[in-house]
Here is the input.
Amino acid sequence: MLKGVKHIIFDLGGVLINLDYKLTEKAFVDLGISNFAALYSQLKQSPLFDDFETGRISKDEFIKGLQQMAALPLSEQQVQEAWNAMLLDFPLRRLQILQQLRLYYDLILLSNTNELHEEAFNKILKESSGQLLAGFFDRIYYSHRVGVRKPDPAIFQRILDDTGFKAAQTLFIDDSPQHIEAAKKLGIQTIYLEKGMTIEDNVFLPR
Here is the structure.
């Protein structure tokens, strides 16, 4: 743990829930959107996805947009299942770490996400642990609910303003380098989870 930390901001995808973007890419390619990788990735995405992740368009508008991109007619269910294919599981050890940390730190969740994924990952968590994500954190910031997504500095500043946290006493953990850099510029301490790293194996080790 870094020195002087009192508050921890966690990313969700790739940090707490395992993701596989390739599964969603493959699912959409199979459905006829052959250039899906050019439209959406961990590092960059087209306006349709940005708009969905900042709440500027509804779930229905997002689904319709993807249907229009496809070469074949797609049902709403096909689109939803393909979009959610990337969401895998919450390892038990990570949930235990959150419970332990919450005894000593303020915990915040900050995720670039969307309405469909919020429904899906809470369902995954509920089925595996009987809980929802809200039960592990003091506050949650979902991009589609607050209207701002990482790496916009405004979302980090909003958290600091809302909570009264001092940036130097706040730690942010994320697996996207552009998000880490944005937090650093505000004076927030950071841990970048590079590919293959996990919070249970590389950050919060058993004592």
